[in-house]
Amino acid sequence: MDPTSSSREYEPLSYIRELEAMMQNAIQQQQYTITIAIAKLLYSILRIILGQQNPAHSSTAMDVDSNVLSELKALGQRVTEIITKMDIELIKQDKTLRAISKLRLQELLKIKSDFCLLLDDWDCDTTFKEAYTLLTKADDDIVAVLLPYLSSLSQKCKLLPTWFPNEALNEMKKRMNRPLIFVNLNRLLVRTTKSSDELMNQLLPILHRFGSFNRKRERYQSNAWNLYLIGLEAGHCGWYQLLYLIMKDLCRNVEKEANFYWLRSLGSLALAEWTLSQNQPGTDHYIQCLKELKVSLIDK
What we know:
75% of the residues lie in helices and 0% in strands. By secondary structure, the chain is mainly alpha-helical.
């Protein structure tokens, strides 16, 4: 064996260690752009190497020493922990995020979620809960940044169904006067939780309170636009019954015929999808949706 082969084999690892040292130095100098760039590079390296160890890639798997793999995974853990300290520090520094800080935080959380999802042994449930706690205490700017991060983390969370739906519903009750947070909590709920009759029965009264629903006139008296946004997110995430019920009532809030039929078409489409999910034919609702959509476009 070539006496230099061992050093060549581990040479890439020395470069990776050097990158980590550079990142640590950039953090000390508060050079966020450099820190994020190095973190992205390290993630790309780890994703390629660790991804190749998946049994699905056995035919093309890289022959990597087990000790090297362990060190790479440990590196991923360290980088994730470092970013965690940085994002919490940014949130504490900027109660109302300036544009540049908001961009930094978005980048940090994006790369952090990438690392969390890459590492098999990372506790995404605990990380989600910590970030959710920040969200419930944060201002609107920070909430807007945390939402996509939490949605991404939820992909690997196994315990969310045991606590998050009830927690989100209770938090929404407290946030009636903070529309953006209320909407984002609802978005997070429908993104991370499957629709059920039980949840629908709990959620609808909360939405009625949020929109000051007038039962006699069967229409919302406030937060109509926010309810529209909630409805769209619900439909995108498969909560078709919720989209249908929201649009059915919202269409009474509009004056222009085009808007009326646009909302009706969304409701009919949602009803068609919901009907199909109940193993019933939805053809008539699809046809109704197309008719209403045509009217809404003609009126414009």
